[in-house]
Write a structure and sequence with these properties.
The protein is an alpha/beta fold. Helices cover 33% and strands 14% of the residues.
Length: 266
């Protein structure tokens, strides 16, 4: 039996906002908490599952519940087909960066061998579009409405072996997850779609009313870590709700955006 840990530093598939650069800081924050074995981590807006994966590797005796808020598990189920497509695309495009119309036609012909439901269009967009963050490509017809394509295809094999091993998975609205799983020993991991920012792959929006609901649970939680940014209003809500917190930030190379983690004072 292979007992070696499967440690991922980024999600197996592209996902905008997956917090791969903040994993080390997250674990350092969690290690300042007095986490007993009866504490349960609730990853309420699970995204790519990377936070749940990382926490489970560090706190393997604790329950970690990942809310597949954006149907990422469906994309993982398609990963073998996506890998097959990746290898096929590499054979078609060669070493060229900007793809010619002739090459695009060859790609169209190649993808005709796959039903739309078999294609992970988010990953495909990351391979062939200049910006792959859109999640609204649902068919090949929609995907190929644009005429400009690039070779940004990943060169290494896609795999997700043991990625979510030991993690409990639910797929529901965050309210339902909290109603069913929250107790006084809950550690809330909150990475919601930021208020007033681009939501990336998130299919569900978070409004001010929902934020206030979350903060009511934050007040009662054993500990919390809340991901946000300086261009969101989330920190203002914390202050208005009189929730004490510590703050850690990471500057991004794009504009003046600062990724933030707000977390329990201990």
């Amino acid at each position: 039996m292979n007992t070696k840990k499967a440690i991922y530093k980024q999600a197996p598939l592209p996902f905008m906002g997956q917090k791969s650069k903040m994993l080390g800081a997250l674990i350092r924050i969690l290690n300042t908490f007095n986490i007993s074995k009866d504490c349960v981590f609730l990853d309420c807006f699970g995204g790519s599952g990377l936070l749940s994966h990382t926490i489970k590797q560090e706190y393997f005796e604790n329950r970690v519940i990942y809310n597949d808020y954006d149907n990422f598990l469906r994309r993982l189920e398609l990963i073998d087909t996506t890998e097959e497509i990746r290898k096929g695309l590499l054979k078609i495009v060669g070493a060229v960066y900007k793809l010619s119309l002739e090459t695009i036609e060859k790609i169209k012909e190649f993808l005709e061998g796959y039903d739309d439901k078999e294609i992970d269009f988010i990953t495909l967009a990351s391979y062939l579009k200049f910006i792959g963050g859109r999640s609204d490509y649902l068919t090949k017809d929609v995907f190929f409405k644009e005429n400009t394509f690039y070779n940004r295809i990943r060169l290494t094999k896609l795999e997700s072996n043991r990625y979510l091993e030991g993690v409990e998975i639910v797929s529901c609205d965050f309210r339902e997850m909290l109603e069913q799983n929250f107790n006084e020993n809950s550690i809330l991991i909150l990475d919601p779609p930021y208020l007033n920012t681009q939501r990336g792959h998130y299919k569900n929006q978070l409004d001010e009313e929902a934020t206030l609901i979350i903060l009511e649970y934050v007040k009662k939680a054993r500990y919390f870590v809340f991901f946000t940014s300086n261009i969101s209003h989330s920190e203002t809500f914390f202050k208005l709700s009189n929730i004490p917190y510590n703050k850690l930030g990471r500057t991004l190379a794009i504009g003046n955006k600062l990724d933030l983690m707000l977390f329990s004072k201990v």
